[in-house]
Amino acid sequence: MADVRPFRGIRYNVELIRDPSSVISPPYDVVSSEEQGLYYQQSPYNVIRLELGEDRPSDTLESNRYTRAAETLRDWLHQGILRRDDTPAFYVLRHRFVRQGILASRWGLVARVRLEGEGAAGARAHEVVLESRVRDRLNLLRSCRVNVSPILGMVRPQDPGLPTILPRLVGPEADVSVLDRQGVIHSMWVVSDQKRVAQICKALADRTVYIADGHHRYETAVTYQRERKAESVSRTGDEPYEFVMMTLADAGDPGMFALPAHRLLRLPNPPEPSHLKDDLDCLFALEYLEPRDSPGETLESWTWALEERAAHGMAIGMYGLHGRRLAVLTPRDRSRLDELLPAERSQEWKNLDVAVLHWVILRRIMGLGSTEQQEQCVAYTGDGRDAISRVDSGEFQLAFLMNAIPISSILAVADAGDRMPPKSTYFYPKLPTGMVMYPLWDD
User: Beta-strand (E) ranges in 352-409?
Assistant: First the structure.
């Protein structure tokens, strides 16, 4: 069960940073190279310099974006741009945003959570991680010794849930509020009052934590923990590296959205479209949908069609197979598909469209038989219009438009001890980086 504790966070000094919105960024894995440059220009103190620093041609093992991040962190602490709180605290987050024309909000609690591996004792994961991304985050953690961005964790809903508990613990005025580039308002309250801290600890003491977003950062934290344990002569068991910073949210929060994570495919030797159609036709019925008058109308129409077909089973959209039309793939015989999936996998995993995509279509039909091959050839985006336009531009050959995976299915896969393919889910809104950081050095 979760060991959730307050911590002395590192935060931007609002006396020196007059516009806090200028110094935040999204998590590293959803920032494009173009956006990275925009965040660099936005402020000389933008957290992107820590979270995702720029590479330089002159980089060496001794001087690179990881060492520059550590130097920048030290400089900002010395200058007072960043300050560490004097008292351990929980940090309550509220995200306010518009979703499908409706104002929504999501509540979260930023805390340090004990690392205890996975399964019954530790946080439960639902996605496979990519080794290259773990190496990247590990290099940053070794250099900075700080959790720059929080992992998004979920707890199952119970009465009262976090959306009820957290608003009762805070006042009307947040300690800081920021507006991100996607139009989301993130507000944060610092809760250091011992009575309220105790209330939070009690409310979460017997809860299981599920990793929603940030599997690579969690794996990085576990790896770093092992390294530090191996180096330590004596330990108390409560060292800072025994914990990781997480934002805990309620899986039943009406503002908790798991959106589709679409796939983009770029093959060195792409198959002939006619051959690919024949291979797919053996297992799937192919229905072609025409584009509408505008990209927005097209995506809306196709999204509705995919959701409608998925109500009766699975449905995957494939763009690039037949001009500007979308091919909707539905199984001819679902039991035959199940026979092609690994026998040792849970039924919860086999029920996923994304499992069929990666195991049957990418591995068996397209020949991407290893995780490494898929990592080289597959890119991910949460924006369906972006996926379509990048195929139209020739950057990628195919796009797979996916339906969202219900949060109940995410929890079920995690409870079964199984792992979805990488980037199967896209939780929205993304947690901002730069609101608070967790230092992994002793107090």
Answer: 378-381, 398-401
Are residues 10 and 83 both part of a single domain?
A: yes
Domains in the chain, number = 2
**Is the same domain home to 230 and 271?**
no
Same domain, 76 and 222: yes
Same domain? 251 vs 266 = no
| DSSP 8-state symbol, 53 | P
* 283 and 377 together in one domain: yes
Burial profile 198-225: b = 16 or more Cβ within 10 angstroms, e = fewer: ebbbebbeebbbbbbbbbbbbbbbbbbb
Residue 238, token pair as written in the block: 């409560």
List the beta strands (DSSP E) in 260-375: 262-265, 284-289, 316-322, 325-331
Tell me whether residue 84 is in a domain: yes
Q: The domain containing residue 24 runs over which residues?
A: 4-257+429-439
Residues 239 and 358 in one domain: no
- The answer to the question of residue 332 being in a domain is yes
For each of the chain's 443 residues, which pLDDT tens digit applies?
788 999 999 999 999 999 999 999 999 988 989 999 999 999 999 999 999 999 999 999 999 999 999 999 999 999 999 999 999 999 999 999 999 889 999 999 999 999 975 444 568 988 888 888 999 999 999 999 999 999 999 999 987 889 999 999 999 999 999 999 999 999 999 999 999 999 999 889 888 999 999 999 999 999 999 999 998 888 888 999 999 999 999 999 999 999 999 999 998 888 888 889 999 999 999 999 999 989 889 999 999 999 999 888 899 999 998 889 999 999 999 888 989 999 999 999 999 999 999 999 999 999 888 878 888 899 999 899 999 999 999 999 999 999 999 999 999 999 999 999 888 999 999 999 999 999 998 76
Residue 120 DSSP symbol: S
Do 231 and 330 belong to one domain?
no
Residues 6+ away with beta carbon under 8 Å from 381: 261, 262, 264, 387, 390
pTM (global) more than 0.85: yes
- Residue 88 is assigned to a structural domain of this protein: yes
In a domain, residue 414? The reply is no
User: How large is the angle between the packed helices 131-144 and 215-231, nearest 10 degrees?
Assistant: 50
C-alpha span between 130 and 71 (Å, rounded): 27
Do 103 and 234 have their domain in common?
A: yes
